[in-house]
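Researcher: I'd like a structural prediction for the single chain below. Treat it as a standalone chain; there are no partners to consider.
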Amino acid sequence: MKSGFRKSLLILVLLWQVLLLTGCDYFVSEQQAHVPFYNRDSRGRADTIGKLGTQSISIPAGVIDGWARYIGDPGDFADPKIKAKYQRPPESYDLPIESFGFQYRITDGDIYTSFRQTEEDYRRDNETLIPYGKPFPWASVSVYGQYDAAPLNFNFTLQDDFRVSKEVTNIDYFQQSQPLYGLTVYKANNGIDPETGEPWKSDTLARDKMIKKDQAGNIKTYIKCEFTQYKNFCSHMFYNDDWHIQIWISYNRVYLPQWQEMESNIINILDSWRVSPEGRLLGKQIGKA
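Model: Treating it as a single chain, here is the predicted structure.
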């Protein structure tokens, strides 16, 4: 009797184990079905993935300066309680990216990537150029996905900057007769400091403003540059309609003549990160280690 009971119990235990194993396999396979395909670099590091504007992308590991922010992510200064409760949706190639940044080398169109030669180049340039006041050949790039219905131009931005300048500092901006590198130029008080009657020597509130319009007359590029020996940086913004994105670039004014090349090269970099809906690369990634 006891022998029959033990056999029955053993059979029940074995059946239960089979059911557990089957259930676990099912659970794991269901989980894996929701994990997207990741492209990886030579060190096995997974790319950062998502949708930037209209395009799905796979950003090579080691490229992003900081981290990518997705739509809905709490801000850096959000309430810690809000951050603790926030749960980002599962990563996918459709998860909309709000912003990310990287370092772009102006001289050859390459980008910084950790564990690649450009990491050593960037460190060397920091140590040998910046302390001696020499032009730094790297530009800081920030990319922003645009997901609302706002117009992709700087028409209002420029006019509002003129208004604020007049109301706050009593400075008018005047369009210059000659373009510069294909850009329409506006100078504060025609480039003259009203207090001294001489050319501006230093005033961040009087930066030169430069624009480029498209064929429809909309401002697609807006650049503001300082202009003295020790304060000579440019803040360069432009829109791209195909991607539906806005890009900010910061660099030494000595590289202003290359503004069009920078815009083109940065879009080429983004193009190299485009992927199919399944995450398969459409080309060779720029910046991959």
